[in-house]
Amino acid sequence: MTDQMRLSQERTQLFTDLMDGKIPKRVPVSALFAHEFAIQYAGRDLTEVQWDTTDLEATFEKVSEDFFSDLLPVSAFRMPSFYKILGSKNFVMGSNGFLQHPEVEGLAVEDYDAFIASPYNCIVERVLPRLYSELNRDPLTRSLVMAKAFNAFTDETGNTGRIYGNLIQKYGYGYTNFFAGFCEAPFDFLTDQLRGFKNISVDVRRIPDKVEAAVNAVTPLMIKMGNQPVPQKYNATFIPLHMAPYLRGKDFDRFYWPSFKKLVDGLAEKGMRSYLFVEQDWMRYIDYLAELPAGTVMMFEYGDPNLVKEKLGAKHIISGFYPLSLLKTGTKQQCIDKAKELIDILAPGGGYYFSFDKVIITQDSTNVENTKAVLEYVSSNANY
């Protein structure tokens, strides 16, 4: 057995123990860097490498060489090629080289009844032609555009999948995959891609019955969307949580929580664990999160780590809380001290792995030397 294979087994075991409810040998570490950071860090041009991904592997290798992580630290979630082919309005490449998600309205208010009757048909027939201009064409052209876009999508994902495999082998990363599936909370899906933040805020007051019916109607579709190709207890389906902190308590109770819990429960019933990015501050809803299936993985952006440990630590898997803002502005010692503080709070008894409070997207959002120092500190000083 090679040293890299042995290292990969050790790292995989850390996460296997974590998800089995056992205390691992040390606190596992998962650092997450977006492909935009990797391209910038390697000194390449964002506007070039994203359109011609020939050098993407080399940029990912630079991150793997320089930053400690037990899991693959780099990913390319969205590439611009297939969005360009589709004439996308919901994901648009900015002049700075970053793919932007502007406010969109894919579902008109008069479409609610059609959506409630059949979400899938409504999305195909009404929403997609609004969000993607090249699909608002005659049937033959639309079919050719979709075929070209899907071919570009499979080319991109096939290439990144190959790169991921190479890096996992070369650097001995663990085989746990927290992104084995992807979906959204039903209310978030209705907001993000269909109605938009402004419109949904009006809808919950003017047509609440239709909003409630819509999130209930789309829930089975979200469960299907979140299915992993090969369900495995040591992988997870990624679900970023967006709208809950912006809702009043009574609106959260009615529109957000019931369908979201049904989604997570539905995946669990199929043997699939959920990985939640708990965006913004969920502390007023912390008791709700305690109701989710045991072993749900939760990466927190903001909030009180002491309260989260108290309320969720015995049942769920916790990560996050480490502020990228401190990496940017603090001294090296301040950054290390913050890592120690979070480990002291969250690590006792297990159920915790170290990560930052969000994915590192741009090189100027962090101090590279501080980031390296924190990751190295945790890897060497967080043994049980």
- Sheet/helix structural class: alpha/beta
Based on CA atoms alone, the radius of gyration comes out at 21 Å
N-to-C SSE string, H for helix and E for strand = HEHHHEHEEHHHEHHHEHEHEHEHHH
Percentage beta strand: 5-15%
Unreliable stretches covering 5 or more consecutive residues: none
> What's the shape?
globular
How are strands sequenced across the largest beta sheet?
5-6-7-8-9
Mean pLDDT, to the nearest integer, reads: 95
Q: Total strand count, please?
A: 9
Helical fraction: 40-55%
| Biggest beta sheet summary | 5 strands, parallel
Intertermini distance: 27 Å
Count of individual helical segments: 17
Walk me through what this model shows.
The protein is α/β, with parallel strands linked by helices and about 375 residues long. Helix content is about 55%, strand content about 5%. The chain is built from 17 helices and nine strands. The strands form three sheets. The protein has a five-stranded parallel sheet. Helix 13 links the parallel strand 7 (about 275-280) and strand 8 (about 295-300). Helix 10 packs across helix 11 (about 210-225) and helix 11 (about 210-225) runs parallel beside helix 12 (about 250-270). The longest helix has about 35 residues, at about 140-170. One of its GO terms (molecular function) is uroporphyrinogen decarboxylase activity. It comes from Formimonas warabiya. Pfam families: URO-D.
